[in-house]
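Our consortium's second objective concerns turning raw sequence data into structural hypotheses that experimental partners can test. To show how far this objective has progressed, the report includes one record in full. It was chosen at random from the queue rather than selected for favorable results. The single chain below, 371 residues long, was entered without modification.
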Amino acid sequence: MPAARTTLRRGLAAAAASSLLAVAATACGYGSEAKDDDSAKSNVSAGGKKLSADTVKIGYFPNLTHATALVGIQEGLIAEELGGTTVKPSTFNAGPSEIEALNAGSIDIGFIGPSPSINGYSKSKGQNLRIIGGSASGGVKLVVNPKKIKTQDDLKGKKIATPQLGNTQDVAFLNWISEKGWKVDAQSGKGDISVVRSDNKVTPDAFKAGSLDGAWVPEPTASKLVAEGGKVLLDESTLWPDDKFVITNIIVSQKFLSEHPDVVDAVLRGTVNTNKWINADPDRAKASANAALEELSGKALPAEVLDPAWASIRITDDPLAATLQAQADHAVEAGLLEKPDLKGIYDLKPLNKILKAAGQPEVADAGLGVK
């Protein structure tokens, strides 16, 4: 097998596997409650003409991999493109609940991981959502106890956590194990390595207590483990061509896209402006994202967690469509997903129109776009 293809395989099954499980978490792997973010700043532009909808309801996670939403709403960069149309934000802790909200019309646009995007689209037979843009790449690491594990070969016989059976990181780890030639039963997690499904909220304490030897987890959990004495043994981005793989997409209800294309365009202009703002001044953007997290959760991330976590996440308009397709393919190969038909999952025409107008390169849909 060519090296590029082998490289692509290693982490890709990751996201699609949670598409098998309706309860599987997104890249963050947290719980499932949704919360209306009525306290968010700058929900309404200071002025301007109202668009075709009075309100646009946007869902996202209170997590650094959703920095576009955190910063875009915190700084008013999305609202200012919407004129008199109000932004109503809601936060979620798991992909399935956000997809349910989209299906029910409780949100119109969402920031979400690749697995629930695949799952939602597949379960609705391509009728509920479109991916209309990218947001973030990377931010997943294998962190271990350096006293017990010094090399990758030392993982054999150890207890390594993933967020949940079949979620993005779980399948990435199972696929990587397979590439190493080790055997693990996907359902039980038993084999040459013990794969322990552990909620990201409790994994740092379990690691600190010594009941886990390591974890394949997203940020900021990975950096929390490092703060507890862990060492990064592998950054998943190194397994991918150009070190890029999708961790967060922007999705929209097909109904809302059809009825309010002007609002969708405005939100996308806001996200493109936000991503430009973030990449132009990463330190200021990092502080803004952390302020948003503190407002949403009541607690900011300490510098020893925030700084390395932020550095490992790449903010991008590109949805990295080829990696989504590969993720689905590898979930199928792992026996965790029936082969999905993803044709039509992307509609990147609005985004590409905005990028072209801004003098930026257009992005590709890997043959999975609407005709």
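The partners drew two points from this record. Residues 1-33, 38-42 have pLDDT under 50 and may be disordered. Residues 261-280 form the longest helix (20 residues). Both points have been shared with the crystallography group to help prioritize constructs.
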